[in-house]
Backbone:
C-alpha cells in the first residue's frame, strides 16, 4: 500500500487530539499557535541525503548546463531544516561527506540566534568508511531507516535516487533535482519541499493521500540485474567506457517506466511521441533507427526490413535537441518481460551505461509496479490548503461580493 512502512522505518506516533489541524475543508479553522509555528510532534524525523558528487559531471560542463555547487546543496539543506522546524518536526538526520556540504550545515547551526526561528534537533549520520560511490547512498539510507525517519529527502540526480530506491523499503522519498540526469527528481524550492516533507513526517497529512508508488524497470543479462526508475536503453556501443551516452545514432531500443514530453534525457524521445504518466499502470517501449535506416536498424538483430522512420526532435541532453529516428512504439505492460532482439551491445539505466551483453546473455526488461514510494509535493500542499493546516486561528477569510480577493488577517 503506498506510503506503508516496515518496522525499521515506522511512521511517527500520531499526536494527541488537538495538536493536529486535520479538519474537513468545510469545518472550522484549525487552532494553530499564534506565533505561526506548529507544535512539535514527538518521534517525527526527516532524513536528508546530499550527494556531493551530483551535478558536477563533465557532461554538464560540455553542454553548458547548470552546475550544482556544494555550497548550494548546503543552502538547500538549511532551507529544508528551517521548514521542518517551523512545522513541528522533532529531528532531522543529515548525511555527512568529505566535500563540505554537511560541514556548511554544521557551521550554520553553530551561528544560529534565538530570533532565527525554531530548528529541529540536528543529527549527523556518519559512515565509518565512505567509498564515494552509490554504495554510500545505500548505506546512508539504511542508517536513516534505523533512526526512524519518516521521509528521506534526496539531493541528487537519477543515479542518487536509483541507489536509494534499493534500500528505502517503504520510507517515502522526496528527490530534489541537483544531478546530471534529472528525469526522476523534480525541481522544487527547498523551503516548499521541506514543508511538504514535514507535513507527512508529523502525520498531519497521511501517506495514502500524500504519496504514490513509482514504477521501475528491471533489466537482466548474463546473470546480472539492474534497476532503472526512468528508462533502459540498449545501444550498439560494445563497452561501458565512460558510461555517458553521447551518440544517439548508436541507440536501438528504449524502455521507459514513464515518459513526459517536458522531460530532459532519453525518456523525452518517448515522451514526445507517446506520453506516459508516472502513475499510469503501463510504460512505453520504442525501437529506434539509429544511423542506419531502411533495413536492420538494430545491429545484430533479426528485425528485418522496416519502413522509413519517423523523426523526433528530442532534448536528449542539456543544450542538445537531436533528431532521433523512431521505427516502432508499443505499450510496455507491467509484469510482462520483453527480450531484446539485439545480439550484443551495452545497456544504459537511467542515462548511464552499466552492462555489456553478447549472444550468450540476451537482455530481458520487465516493468514492475513495485518501485519506491514517492512523496507528492503538490498533493501534500493541496491537502494542507484544503484543511487550513497552516492557518492560525486569527485568520479571517472573507468572501465579499465587492472584493475580488481573499483577505487573510
Residues:
Amino acid at each position: 500500500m503506498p506510503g506503508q512502512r516496515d518496522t525499521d522505518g515506522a511512521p511517527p506516533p500520531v499526536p494527541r487530539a488537538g495538536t493536529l489541524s486535520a479538519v474537513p475543508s468545510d469545518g472550522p479553522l484549525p487552532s494553530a499557535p499564534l506565533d505561526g509555528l506548529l507544535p512539535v510532534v514527538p518521534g517525527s524525523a526527516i532524513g536528508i541525503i546530499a550527494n556531493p558528487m551530483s551535478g558536477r559531471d563533465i557532461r554538464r560542463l560540455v553542454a553548458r548546463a547548470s552546475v550544482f555547487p556544494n555550497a548550494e546543496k548546503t543552502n538547500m539543506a538549511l532551507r529544508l531544516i528551517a521548514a521542518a522546524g517551523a512545522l513541528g518536526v522533532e529531528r532531522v538526520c543529515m548525511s555527512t561527506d568529505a566535500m563540505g556540504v554537511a560541514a556548511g550545515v554544521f557551521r550554520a547551526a553553530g551561528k544560529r540566534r534565538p530570533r532565527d526561528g525554531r530548528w529541529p534537533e540536528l543529527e549527523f549520520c556518519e559512515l565509518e568508511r565512505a567509498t564515494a560511490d552509490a554504495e554510500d547512498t545505500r548505506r546512508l539510507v539504511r542508517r536513516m531507516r534505523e533512526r526512524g525517519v519518516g521521509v528521506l529527502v534526496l539531493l541528487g540526480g537519477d543515479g542518487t535516487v536509483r541507489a536509494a530506491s534499493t534500500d528505502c523499503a517503504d520510507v517515502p522519498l522526496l528527490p530534489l533535482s541537483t544531478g546530471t540526469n534529472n528525469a526522476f527528481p523534480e525541481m522544487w524550492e527547498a523551503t516548499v519541499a521541506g514543508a511538504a516533507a514535514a507535513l507527512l513526517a508529523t502525520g498531519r497529512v497521511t501517506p495514502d493521500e500524500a504519496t504514490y508508488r513509482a514504477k521501475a524497470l528491471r533489466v537482466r543479462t548474463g546473470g546480472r540485474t539492474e534497476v532503472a526508475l526512468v528508462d533502459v536503453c540498449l545501444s550498439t556501443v560494445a563497452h561501458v567506457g565512460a558510461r555517458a551516452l553521447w551518440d544517439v545514432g548508436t541507440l536501438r531500443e528504449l524502455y521507459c517506466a514513464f515518459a513526459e514530453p517536458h522531460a530532459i534525457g532519453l525518456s523525452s524521445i518517448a515522451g514526445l511521441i507517446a506520453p506516459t504518466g508516472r502513475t499510469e499502470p503501463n510504460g512505453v517501449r520504442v525501437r529506434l533507427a539509429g544511423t542506419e535506416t531502411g533495413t536492420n536498424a538494430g545491429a545484430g538483430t533479426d528485425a528485418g526490413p522496416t519502413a522509413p522512420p519517423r523523426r523526433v526532435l528530442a532534448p536528449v541532453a542539456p543544450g542538445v535537441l537531436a533528431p532521433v529516428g523512431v521505427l516502432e512504439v508499443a505499450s510496455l505492460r507491467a509484469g510482462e518481460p520483453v527480450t531484446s532482439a539485439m545480439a550484443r551491445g551495452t545497456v544504459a539505466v537511467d542515462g548511464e551505461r552499466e552492462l555489456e551483453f553478447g549472444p550468450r546473455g540476451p537482455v530481458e526488461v520487465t516493468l514492475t509496479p513495485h518501485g519506491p514510494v514517492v512523496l507528492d509535493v503538490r498533493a501534500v500542499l493541496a491537502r494542507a490548503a484544503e484543511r487550513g493546516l497552516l492557518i492560525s486561528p486569527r485568520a479571517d477569510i472573507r468572501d465579499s461580493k465587492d472584493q475580488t480577493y481573499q483577505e487573510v488577517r
